[in-house]
Fold this protein.
Amino acid sequence: MDHFLYRDGLLYAEDVALADIAAAVGTPFYCYSTATLLRHFRLFDEALSGMDHLICYAMKAASNQAILKTLAAEGAGMDVVSGGEYARARAAGVPSDRIVFSGVGKTRDEMRTVLAGGIRQFNVESEPEMIALSAEAVVLGTVAPITIRVNPDVDAKTHAKIATGKSENKFGIPISRAQEVYALAASLPGLEVIGIDVHIGSQLTDLAPFELAYQKVAELTHELRAQGHNIRRLDLGGGLGIPYTQNNVPPPLPADYGAMVKRVLGDLDCEIEIEPGRLIVGNAGVLVSEVIYVKSGEDRDFLIVDAAMNDLIRPAMYEAHHDIVPLVEPAPGMEGAAYDIVGPVCESGDTFAKQRQMASLKSGDLVAFRSSGAYGAVMASEYNTRPLIPEVMVNGDQFCVIRARPTFDEIIKRDIIPKWM
């Protein structure tokens, strides 16, 4: 459920008409619903009630500080994958003991920054990283708490570009080698082994791959404890999917996921961490765009909108589906039309949908791309010197621009002309 609903024939974000925001800030723009963010976070929190747990929001999904502060105030931790994300989390007021540092390519500079600033744990992904982290911790006179990410070789049955738990993926160490890698970690002076980390992919719509991976983690926990490792925390990653269209079978609910976690891992007396991103913010955001032209082709009509692949790259990158709806609710029985919905960028890949059946539209009409809160604004670029579009947050009957659209002058002035020119 989200809080983007039609009211009196207009699409609202909570108690604000999206058309009113468009009139104030221009299009295109992203809009987030505070009520939806909080609802989705609380569903996860309730799902793991009765277990010692921390929900670490995966910042890579959407990292505006307003989103981070909203979730942190509810008690959320943060899962970061770069020094920049760590800095954002700290700037948003997230305590260092609620930040987890993941990612396969942590640099020594990032390690030093995070060790100095404080961290809940590093999720280590390789032996070279482990050795480098230990060395940096020793120089700083501290000890780095770590989990080791294991790759359970489980097929998440999701899109190939967002699968992370199979043997050919770059993430983690093979679970078959876990015992020797944990032994190495225990021998390094700058590390303290505290747990196990696993993450098998994103946008999973079935609990079976999760359960298989977690069963392997449970077995590994027993094995490592038998060898003297104090395994007391299990980081289970994220990945639970969201419904991108109302016509698909809905993914499992957080309550179902939580019940499975309790059944498989509840007797291990471990603190549980999960790292949802998409499920918290995906349906909490929409992208609003204006129709520039309706163009008739030889065998199809094109709906040309002012949003483009640089604003929302998921359809071009992942062949992702987003429901696209008009801001004015179509009248019952209104005749529809099929459109290829495209943006203005000079790439054939700048296509959001092909032959999408929807209400007939004309130049100047506004549309909303639903479920675009995750991996929308954070993956945007200034390709074609198109400014990054505003982000707006709604809270009840209030809205605020939480990232402004830069001017062309601001973009161009970032260029540095060499003195010899």
